[in-house]
Design a protein that fits this description.
13% strand; 4 helices; alpha+beta; 162 residues; 67% helix
Length: 162
């Protein structure tokens, strides 16, 4: 009976994104919806056509809904990440990602309340600043979440080639 092959660690590793593919899909919605809400706020401020605030309200509602699901998934990600030295960098990145999502979601929720006001006061300076904050937080969360961080070492059985 032959002995099992000895596995040796290769000097290189493959990088994987922080996010699960379904989680990444959930994050894509707030990035697009909050960015579109910012664009419709700017358009409203330039045109004073009230329909643009209605667009913003719906875009913000969708961004908060899908962002809430991404935020819940990020909470699970942080809770499941261990505290071993190998996972410490992943946990730090996951906590930063969670905080960015929390800022995005809170700013989006407050912005939704701001947009529920009547007419010009729904957007003005406060609504525009909140749209900018939620958009920047969504983009930053996307940057952190989509960047490659997790590494899995490749193993090679003795006698196999690369």
């Amino acid at each position: 009976m032959a002995a099992p092959p000895v596995r040796q660690r290769l000097p290189h590793s493959r990088l994987y994104p922080l996010l699960h593919p379904l989680h990444a899909l959930l994050l894509a919605f707030p990035i697009a919806l909050f960015s579109s809400a910012l664009a419709s706020d700017i358009t409203y401020l330039n045109s004073a056509e009230i329909q643009w605030t209605n667009f913003s309200q719906w875009l913000l509602a969708g961004g908060c809904l899908m962002g809430g699901f991404a935020l819940l998934w990020a909470l699970v990600l942080v809770a499941r990440t261990g505290a071993t030295p190998e996972e410490r960098a992943v946990r730090t990145r996951a906590v930063v990602y969670l905080l960015l999502l929390a800022v995005m979601w809170i700013a989006g929720l407050v912005n939704s309340f701001q947009h529920s006001r009547d007419g010009w006061s729904s957007v003005e300076t406060t609504g525009l600043v909140l749209s900018i904050i939620s958009t920047l937080a969504a983009l930053a969360a996307g940057w952190v979440g989509y960047s490659s961080l997790r590494a899995e070492r490749a193993y090679l059985a003795e006698g196999e080639g690369l």
